[in-house]
Amino acid sequence: MKIELSQVSRWYGNVVAVNDVSMTIGPGVTGLLGPNGAGKSTLLHMMAGFLAASGGTVTLDGTPTWKNHQIYRHIGLVPEREGVYGFLTGWQFVLSAAKLHGLPSPEDAATKALAMVEMEPARDRRVETYSKGMKQRVKVAAALVHDPQVLLLDEPFNGMDPRQRMHLMDLIKAMGTAGKTILFSSHILEEVERVAQHIEVVVAGRHAASGDFREIRRLMTDRPHLFRIRSSDDRKLAAALIVDRSAGGVTLTSNGLEVQATEFRRFAWLLPRVARHEGVHLHQVSPADEDLESVFAYLITRSS
Amino acid sequence: MNGVVAGITYRAVLGRRRILLLILLPLGLVGLAVLLRLVGSADERSAVTLMQSFAIGTMLPLLGLIAGTGVIAPEIDDGTVLHLLSKPISRPVIAQTKFAVAASLLALFAALPTFVAAWLLVGGESGIATGFTVGALCGGIAYAALFLLLGVVTRHAVTIGIIYALVWEGLIGNFVPGARQFSVQQWARSIADQLSSSPFLATDVKLSFAVPALIVVTVGGVLWAGQRLRAYSLTGDE
């Protein structure tokens, strides 16, 4: 099954949360990547039928998702908010999901779903006694109980410990390989890279990039990088660096050097060699703009 | 009606401390009735006064507010309602189920204690017990729908509900006769008056207005709540 967004916008009063986004989410695992506040949740909510688009259309295999409760036969949703009845046990919670779906054998489905997320040992404890990661897993179990063709997860790895994270990543990968359509949002590139074959990048409500993870990774590493360097002789090092084509510009400041590297890989290879050759000691080499925000900012200027 | 939705809703309402609120007022009503009996004032006049001012005038709207908003508003607040809404169940059915739970709670915690208290005071005399019980039941059903709708429409359901029940029905209704026309508890009193022959009971709102009004509020409230749930939106933190 596929989810199609066609020229979708969503605004709240004067604030535009999502701006003219078109994308198709097909079988396999897709990562929805973007910084916080980029509109990932807004997009996900529209796909899940929990928000009307202000403009454009959101469809699941051609049928609109808004005001259409039949889509939940095919969609499993793991929302970001905790939203689990604390007074139910994990078992009761997942079983209630199976019953609400009207499954022919709710007990079997609930048992299977709890096993998938490795929550059988704690199934008879009340949800309010669970850790954040356990609540997250029981939510995933409830979303999987009817074996949906489409799974939407909003920041699913938040609050999970590394082992649980690995387990859920494997589970998502396996489901993607089995031909299910899976979309999850995240603001962490490494997370998305490990699970998703396909990545959609959203920045400030706009669709900034789309492709497989190698392509996105290349876009992100091949951009110009800014390094701050402190050494035993800044001026000497500056003179030696600017000779090479990988350094686009060198600025001498009171705090050391600022080097604009146009070719990241070559520059990383070059710097220690040049320093040794010139007999300069490197005290500090730090990337000045490695935060995700600037990576995204680069992507959005590149795409527009 | 959906059994699973009803089951979760009963547990949510009765499991939290709200059940204490639901029990406290009926206990107070029955306690007052027992007290009046013990001091020998258990006559028709005091029965009607207690029923009008406490059972219908205070307990019914407050319990209506607790039960009507309680079946849905906390779930919308903490996001758990998503568990029900992300299932292939029509939203109007979810609204109807929530309404039925609230109405049944009001039958148990408002109408039944009303009957017990009235019966303790005057037995079957002048149809007071029956009249007020049926009145409380009809009023409770309308309150359930009204406050359910309020719980779906606004996050300030309890505040608005209290203002309606105490200020509009209680305060303004006492001084402005016109306001009584649009008061659920006045409609409940009209029904009680119809079924009781007690001379101490008088109402301002005609039955020919009260009954259609109760039906319109109940049916309209439940239908509207269902439509609002169909358009339930997650606006998120963004």
From TrEMBL, chain A:
It comes from the Bacteria. Pfam families: ABC_tran (PF00005). Signal peptide: none annotated. CDD domains: ABC_DR_subfamily_A. The keyword Nuclease does not apply. Keywords: ATP-binding, Nucleotide-binding, Transport. SUPFAM superfamilies: P-loop containing nucleoside triphosphate hydrolases. Residues 3-229 form the ABC transporter domain. GO terms for molecular function: ATP binding; ATP hydrolysis activity. PANTHER family: ABC TRANSPORTER RELATED, ABC TRANSPORTER, ATP-BINDING PROTEIN. Belongs to the ABC transporter superfamily. This is ABC-2 type transport system ATP-binding protein.
TrEMBL record, chain B:
Pfam families: ABC2_membrane_4. Keywords: Membrane, Transmembrane, Transmembrane helix. One of its GO terms (molecular function) is ABC-type transporter activity. GO terms for cellular component: plasma membrane. It comes from the Bacteria. The chain crosses the membrane at residues 19-39, 51-73, 99-122, 128-150, 157-176, 207-226. The keyword Transmembrane helix applies. This is ABC-2 type transport system permease protein. It comes from Nonomuraea dietziae.
